[in-house]
Design goal:
By secondary structure, this protein is an alpha/beta fold. It has 2 domains: 122 residues, 3-Layer(aba) Sandwich (Rossmann fold), CATH 3.40.50.620; 116 residues, Rossmann fold (3-Layer(aba) Sandwich), CATH 3.40.50. Helices cover 42% and strands 19% of the residues. A 10-stranded mixed β-sheet has the order 3-2-1-4-5-10-9-6-7-8, with helices on both faces. Strand 7, helix 8 and strand 8 form a beta-alpha-beta unit. Helix 7 packs parallel to helix 8. The radius of gyration is 18 Å and the shape is elongated. The protein starts with 7 loop residues before the first strand and ends in a 16-residue tail after the last strand. The relative contact order is 0.15.
């Protein structure tokens, strides 16, 4: 198990190809930035625990020697919505690396409300897609708006950028409302101040404004060679438009991993990823 100052990547693992890819992604990050990987498997009944542990032992034995030294596992009885976060809390996980096929597969794997997993945890998430194309962190694209959640997710993005010496590209949401635009500019100032204080390379990207914000954002993601998209999490309700925006980021056609966190709880998160 990792010590108190070492990052721990928790990977929800159910023996499918997509979760195997999430494991490999977490391993690559742990080799680059240091840390350990924990496979978390949840079963419905106590009788299923031993069978799951035997299968996980086989998974570990099939890893390369250097990877075996980094990986451990934990099996828990329960359900994904309540007990994934419990595994994270018990083990001191720094981040959850979760694989998904996209919204459909994500819902199939974790229940009818895909982002309910994120909402039930204060631990940051890196969400990977099947056949994702990148295994490094050099460029992070961070779309932001007038909402405070945009500022809060910056803390996690900045900690990743520091760890992997990555650059953050801030892309502001175009809003026609003068007051909301003012709030967005205020957020921009706060975010840039935080990034500057922690010596994180960053720039402000101004999109052409000829197509929708989402279309031009994803065009920039592709053109810039982004390795990660940092998107704020919003609970459903008054900001449901942003909730839908996050879902679209998770299922982006470029298969770029997305980092997010249950923003209202971000300031209470502990762990070396959020010490900036």
């Amino acid at each position: 198990m990792s010590d108190q100052n070492e990052d721990l990547y928790l990977v929800p693992y159910d023996f499918t190809h997509v979760t195997e890819e999430a494991l490999q992604y977490a391993l690559k990050l742990s080799h680059i930035g240091g840390g350990k990987v924990l496979l978390g498997h949840i079963v419905k009944n106590e009788d299923d625990v031993l069978t799951a542990e035997l299968k996980l032992e086989k998974v570990l034995k099939n890893l390369k020697d250097a990877d075996q030294e980094k990986v451990s596992y934990k099996v828990m009885v329960g359900n994904i919505f309540e007990d994934l976060d419990k595994i994270g809390d018990l083990t001191g996980a720094s981040v959850i690396v979760m694989g998904t096929h996209g919204v459909t597969g994500f819902q199939k794997l974790f229940g009818s409300n895909a982002l309910k997993v994120v909402s039930s945890s204060s631990i940051p998430f890196i969400i990977t897609q099947e056949d994702q194309k990148t295994d490094k962190i050099e460029n992070i694209v961070l779309p932001f708006s007038y909402a405070k959640e945009s500022v809060q997710v910056t803390q996690f993005a900045a900690s990743l950028a520091e760890k992997y010496n990555a650059a953050i590209h801030l892309v502001g949401y175009r809003d026609k409302d003068e007051w909301l635009l003012r709030d967005m500019k205020t957020n921009e100032v706060v975010m840039r101040k935080h990034l500057t204080q922690h010596n994180v390379k960053h720039d402000i990207i101004k999109l052409p404004g000829k197509e929708s914000y989402e279309t031009e954002l994803m065009n920039y993601v592709k053109e810039s060679g982004a390795d990660l998209i940092a998107a704020a999490y919003f609970s459903q309700g008054i900001k449901s438009i942003f909730h839908s925006f996050l879902e679209s980021m998770i299922t982006n056609d470029h298969k770029i991993p997305v980092i997010t966190i249950n923003a209202p709880d971000v300031m209470s998160v502990s762990g070396s990823f959020l010490t900036v």
